[in-house]
């Protein structure tokens, strides 16, 4: 996907408008991070959302289900890699600055994994994984759905994303997971 030179200023202008519109909500959520217990909680959630939580869950599914679990995890892993490819391409082409970079009163409560914020890769993967685990291992829905919501919330509280970054990340993750299930209802390796 190559953006032409006239598209980039329009995109930057749209992000600038959205940034100002979202600033109050973004700042309100980010202010919760000034409370040590809340900040530590969401830092932990965000770090687990880097992959540790999902990879541990994948290993547990394989350990419990054996070969059928390996097939499930294969499908989930392929969709996760697709999420990474999509969000990294979008971030590097759309170049929306993170809130803590654009606004001095938004604090970064954690170090970023990359430079740009749109869309939220953490949220995209969290929603993608939550949907797929919920479909393939329904007993995990009570664990993965609340965790995905907390991951999304953590990204705004920690100053890494605007709410629209998280919303678009969630929608893209949902599209990838549901799209994969539409193509392969029994899983890619089923």
Structure description:
There is one protein chain. This protein has about 190 residues and is mainly α. It has one domain (about 30-185). The protein has helices at about 5-30, 35-65, 65-95, 100, 120-135, 140-155, 165-185. It is globular and about 50 Å long. The model has no long low-confidence stretch (mean pLDDT about 90).
**What average pLDDT do the residues reach?**
90
Main beta-sheet annotation = none
Count of distinct structural domains: 1
SSE run: HHHHHHH
Determine Rg (CA atoms, Å): 17 Å
Low-confidence segments: none
Q: Tell me the structural class.
A: mainly alpha
Estimate what percentage of residues fall within beta strands.
Answer: under 5%
Report how far the terminal alpha carbons are from each other.
Answer: 32 Å
Number of helices: 7
Helix content: over 70%
The count of strands amounts to: 0
The general outline is globular
Topology of this protein?
Layout: H1 7-31, H2 36-65, H3 67-94, H4 99-102, H5 121-136, H6 141-157, H7 163-183
Helix pairs in contact: 2-3, 2-5, 2-6, 3-5, 3-7, 5-6, 5-7, 6-7
